[in-house]
Write a structure and sequence with these properties.
single chain; 122 residues; alpha+beta; 3-stranded antiparallel beta sheet; 26% strand
């Protein structure tokens, strides 16, 4: 959404601002991962095998009224989560739909990581 990066809310006002901006909009959750492995026959500090990838999931938020936003904020759920919501907890009620990997939105793209790791170690 407008190339904004949503971090963990600093306080209730910040949580309200974030959730209000997500309301009735679609945003993307991106997770980047880099795998790094020193080659067996290489000297320390040299010859690393590196592989980077990312996962992207679109999240479509419901139209949230102020009462819903404020009730969610009062639950305390937004404060330790980037974007101010946790799709794996009460925040699921704020999300209309997703397109992509649920686990990416939850915090880590486990399936994509497994696929990429398998390619990396072969």
């Amino acid at each position: 959404m407008d190339n904004k990066i949503y971090e963990k809310p600093l306080d209730k006002e910040d949580a309200y601002r974030i959730l209000k901006s997500l309301s009735d909009n679609t945003h993307r959750v991106l997770t980047g991962v880099t795998l790094l492995k020193r080659e067996i026959d290489s000297a320390p500090g040299s010859d690393f095998k590196i592989h980077s990838f990312y996962e992207q999931t679109s999240v479509n938020f419901a139209n949230l009224d102020d009462n819903v936003i404020n009730s969610y904020i009062e639950s305390g759920d937004p404060f330790d989560k980037a974007g101010g919501y946790g799709i794996q907890s009460l925040g699921a009620s704020l999300v209309k739909s997703i397109n992509g990997d649920f686990f990416n939105v939850q915090g880590f793209p486990a399936h994509k990581f497994s696929v990429e790791l398998k390619k990396f170690i072969q």
